[in-house]
Batch of 4 targets.
Target 1
Amino acid sequence: MSEIRLQDNFIDIEPYVAGEQLEGDVVKLNTNENPYPPSQMAVDAIRNYTFDSLRKYPRSSSNELRRALAAEQGLPEDYVFTANGSDEVLALAFRSFFNSNMPILFPDITYSFYPVWCKLLGIAFTKIPVKDDFNIDETDYKVENGGIVIANPNAPTGIGRGEAFVRFILDNNKNVIVIMDEAYADFAEFSAVSMIKEYDNLLVTGSFSKGRSLAGLRIGMAYGSPELIRVLDTVKDSFNSYPIDMLAEAAGTASVLDRKYYNECCQRICKTRESAKATLEKLGFYVLPSSANFIFATHSKVDAKSLYVFLKGKKILVRHFDKPRIDQYLRISIGTDDEMECLVKAICDYLGKERG
Ligand SMILES: *Cc1c(COP(=O)(O)O)cnc(C)c1O
């Protein structure tokens, strides 16, 4: 005569909501994908793959990929971790390093996956409000805590911070792990990977999805001291020993070797970003300074959600967050120059004025 229902056994959790993936002919500026194709070297690595090898399991530590990433950063191989997208790297890092009784800290405006992982993994957290200009005040992180995660450049604001900011947080939190989520570092001026050997409490995560045009392959990495990487590998091996499949490793490794191509693509995106920002400012938008491949914009006379809905009707997807403090902003991924032109034209239609 049990009163327990089957459903009482289910986890009660609100998932992270990813941007829409509409099929067909859309201008897709809502999930920060790279508008340019992956390196030809990555494509060839898959084309020329010896498919018979797929019978076997991959090597569990993706040595080839890790070796390439280590060489790129001038680090020994045991400073590098890889997994199935930086989302998985981050989830494994949360499980590995946030085991204190104190809450971990992250900004109130940041990647909205952080609170989801905390709830999934039973990690207490405190959100620290960013300033009115959306900057993170590093002095707010000088309080007792169980760990810190900061996206730098931050999402969805795009604001990137430099060495002094990261150093202040690391110096004031020597006994906890500080994760710098650098999913957008390929578009920024600064990366904390340069500080890995100085700080044994620093873990820097990165992604192949934005800067390397390989969101569909799902590859992410982390850089940290060999001690941190060992713990991450132990947790990975307790969950899924083979997070990176053989084709992803082959293409990922090849793409690391084609740094020149990606540098060119990223530079082009940054150039398009700055001209899109200037154009939107002329149309009356306020656009936050961005060090990423997207911009965060608001207009005093235009309701952001209404504009989002209008653009969607025109098959242009941007991202709107129905959340406190940012519900009057749109996050717009940087596409090709043609795609941005298309966006500006639609916005001009909405504003009811001619361009120029
Ligand atoms: C896109 C993104 C990720 C996840 O990247 P994947 O490698 O595609 O899993 C992590 N953190 C931030 C801040 C992101 O924007």
Note: The radius of gyration is 21 Å.
Target 2
Amino acid sequence: MFFILALLFGQLFATKVNVMLPLRTVSNDGNLDESVAQRFPILKNAGVNGVMVDVWWGIVEKTPKTYNFKPYLRLAQLCQQNGLKLQCVMSFHQCGGNVGDDCNIPIPSWAKNNANVFYRDAHGHDDTEVISLDVDEETVLQGRTPRQVYKDFMEAFALGMGSFMGSVIEEIQVGLGPCGELRYPGYQLDRWSFPGVGEFQAFSPRMKELFANASKQAGHPEWTSPPTDAGSYNSRPDETSFFTNGYRSAYGNHFMNWYTQLLIDHGRRILTDAVSIFKPLGVGVAMKVSGIHWWYNHASHAAELTTGYINGGFSTQDFYSRIASLCAELGVVVDFTCFEMSNNEQSQDAKCAPENLVYQVLMACKNANVAMSAENALARYDATAYNRIITNACNRGGKVAAFTYLRLTDNLVYNGQNLNEFKRLISTIRNC
Ligand SMILES: *[C@@H]1O[C@H](CO)[C@@H](O)[C@H](O)[C@H]1NC(C)=O
């Protein structure tokens, strides 16, 4: 009796393994590549719980408030037929221009028409992959605020997917920035290369005004501009005055607290809406944090700072703890990446420490008592990477609720050795 109960319990709390579908599963003109489903029986047989797909804003809402969810309905049906769950990402960002992007799906052209809705860096470059968080509550998208646009989209999705919600679709990951992650586009691939520090994205006229206002409120009207001494995308921290000393000054603390707080406020707004829409349908909500592992061991955590992640050396709590608390409060799962990365495989010159970063986030989630799910950042098929994933997911004091493998390829399912290695990964993680 006890044994059977233990077995049932084990199944209930077993770590789930999901697999991300290719970025181009649904084409720019809204067609589902149904051949993807030929791999579903192999995944199911390997012990996979479900697949994850991006629901692209740029594909679904080509005209304001007119939504095409047809390809996703068909995909949900194919998942159901194969006994797989479907996790959907509300992808309010552009596909293309980031690591691993083999696609080109811009945000809808009607949303791109307004030039004043984008992030701008100190050099005057606008990034058009995502709408800037500073206009969340401004009526800038043809009579609607971005927040309203995202809310309308999620409501339409919930309605459009009908009875699949809460059955086949058990979790929604909510896009909150570039790559769907809650972050600033600090390291755009067309100007940045590893391991540059990236650039702050706080120089649009409105962001500058917001910052000047915040400075006045803090009793420092002389702090009118975000830092202009933080180098450029490909600088190293020690080449800049901001990442050497500036970040530790009263001004640096003030700027960083402001920059990080905007990000957290944005997350709270959009996630609150998502929770109110999806939770009543029995569908979980998740959000994603980016894995900025370079310069982690530099005192400034420079690359994390341009991304918007305060960490170490500041008067307030680090970003990861604050996000864990926020998600605990809202009942949202924290999704984190880099699980396959070992310190000794990364550049020590760039002070990379992915293992330490993963551990910090694991502990932040454990302390906040919030569910965490894990991903690998880059495509790997080898035992070294998989053993690192197993160690991180099972043996470092915080158990993850799910692991999502990036990403489904023919090389994963049609290569016998790769598939066997993957099966070993799945069965180990499920039982950890
Ligand atoms: C900055 O403060 C001024 C004065 O209070 C206000 O009129 C303006 O709207 C504020 N700017 C922004 C972008 O909130």
Note: DSSP finds 14 helices and ten strands in the chain.
Target 3
Amino acid sequence: MSEKELTDKYVLGTYSREDVAFVRAKGSYLWSDKGEKYLDFFPGWGIGNIGHVHPSVKKAVCDQAGQILHMPNNFYSSHQGKLAGKIVERAFPGRVFFSNSGAEANECALKVARAYGNLKGKPGVVTARKSFHGRTMATITLTGQEKYQKGFGPLLANVEYFDFNSISSFDEVFHDSICAVMIEVIQGEGGVQVGTQEFIRHIRQKTQEKEALLIIDEVQTGVGRTGTFFAYENYGIVPDIVTMAKALGGGVPIGATIVGEKFADILKPGMHASTFGGNSLACRAALAVLEVIEIKKILEKMPVKSRFLFKRLKQFKKKFPFIKEVRGMGLMAGIELEGDKALRFFKKAIDKHLIVNCTAGCVLRILPALNISRKDLKAGLDIMEEIFYEIG
Ligand SMILES: *Cc1c(COP(=O)(O)O)cnc(C)c1O
């Protein structure tokens, strides 16, 4: 049986899949089992900030596999403390809890929030509509979209929602019994909606006034995606908790929750755990990712690439009237199209061996590798232009 036949027969059908199997990847390129080459503008669904199978990550993983793969957390092991230190250096004074995914990173943040809230007698948590925070029971509750919650109730109690970028809507739900606000400063899955300076700063100010935690979900926007290591840096604020995952491990599963010093003692021994959390292999891979970003000066090189990308996307908007809006920051872009054009675009792109993503029904989302060459970026944009002509 082919991989497709085996998958369809034995793997739960929770995903709708395209009829192509990829067996090899390097940088911004993928190869199918038929030997066909694809350009990837959405590497690994947001995990590929330094491209697929970066040589430094490969070397780190292979080397670590020859030493030790995993130690339980009742002992010290290699690389966990070092990685936590590097992450804290990039963020703010605090400490890190390691897990394996974005949802788990958010679960940990929520447990800190609830533990804190219950001490203070205020259990409420608020999040934005059209947000995305994961697929576990707690994180679908935090995700302000009915389509992810439908059929799975009862959800967590004491969670309320506000409209993204609406100060009045936020003020309506943010009352005295709220212990935490969780937010993406740029909503990814929700259609690359960029938080305004005014809105994000307002939330920081209100949470500070009421001593509520500001939790920023950087699972998609972290590790340099928007041009700064964390997207919140663009807003001149410092959150209390930040969650990360996706690109942190360069393709190896890892999640991280950074808790600011002031709240770092809320979770005491025994209150939270993860068997694989801080796994030596994952931490070693993440250290390699952070080193590549630093040594290759990836963030320093981003403004030029970002300008190149958005200049071209804005030209598309002028040229094709069915493009409603172009949004984003750094190398995170959303292109909102009329009707079902985004989905048609996505299908056509696959036929032309270009991988993009269609989210929120009508938004093309692209997250090219941050170290993509200008030549490859241009090649993908040329294909995009071709498709815009075809679907017009
Ligand atoms: C992908 C994503 C998650 C969930 O991450 P998983 O690793 O799939 O659990 C949470 N928040 C945001 C913003 C994401 O983009």
Note: The mean pLDDT is 98.
Target 4
Amino acid sequence: MHVEFYRHNLDAADIAEVTRVLQSVFLTTGPVTAAFEGKFAALTGLPHVVALNSCTGALHLALLALGIGPGDEVITTAMTFIATATAIMHTGATPVLVDADPVTAQIDPVKVAQALTSRTKAVMPVHLYGAMADMRALRAIADAHGLALVEDCAHCIEGERGGVRPGQLSDAACYSFYATKNLACGEGGALAARDPDIAAQVRTLSLHGMSKNAADRYHGKYKHWDMVASGWKYNLNDIHAALLVNQIDRLDALLARRQALAERYDRGLRGTPGLERPQAVGKTAQHLYTIWVDPDRRDEILHQLQERHVGVAVNYRAIHTLRYFRETFGYVPEDFPVANRIGQRTISLPLYPKLTEDELDYVVAQVREVVAG
Ligand SMILES: *Cc1c(COP(=O)(O)O)cnc(C)c1O
């Protein structure tokens, strides 16, 4: 048996949609991107959606639209992918990392409150593994101190916690459609917001700061565009949007499958000595199936699983322990002991709708043997 860490869910209809785009006039941002934005707004319940070429770009532009720049501090978690912090650095602001909750691995609101300074302008929570951070607690902190809130929803389109979904309590929710995400087109992202002004600013900034995009310019009598801001090049194109526009209709069914697989893992791995799991609060998008093992044996376990043809990944080592963050900000591992320890213990197992029960049962058997040592 050979179990891939990830396999995508694109089907014949998605591929046919790409072919249709390739046979049309428009390859760049056009009618298919617009159709996807409409469907994504309906899915998330957030009225204003801008399709972009990455979540990193969405995070960057969300902060810019909220007026964040050099001299400002933005608080985020040490237990995340590096893009959460690099997007803050793209604006010229300083990422201020805080520790994670030891049970959920989510950003700890108590630590956020302790990290506030007169320079703090925003908080950027991450909904890690598909479960949600405590948005009510973070909203209360943001209200008390006049801060912006931008959510990294790269793992979490479908989650809900205490009746709150991504984007409902924040200024902007930023999504990823990277190759391995729950909704995937290879490279892609989106910003969703309640405030039309934030979305409009992000749309302009995503296309060089131009006042009109190619589709606007295509129709009717020629009208000059203007440059109204200094922008970036983050727009999604219709070829990539074609892979998303029908896939989005299957997201509920795909999540149900992920859920069933995660429950089968839970049953199969229950009672394995030396194995723990992060706990999700509320409904999770089941993006990653994470196990926590003995930190002194993690790499050995990873390698043994690979030798047994089980695809594995590490999501993530705490970012303050990575060389760039250590050298640039002077962090040491003990600065965030919870995130550091999670990063030393964590292993992601294969979890995707095409994973079969036989494959999953094989993974469970290998994990039980290898972890037992
Ligand atoms: C994937 C990911 C990102 C970056 O998404 P891109 O679309 O690749 O820019 C950001 N944050 C987290 C937590 C991610 O997993």
Note: DSSP finds 14 helices and nine strands in the chain.
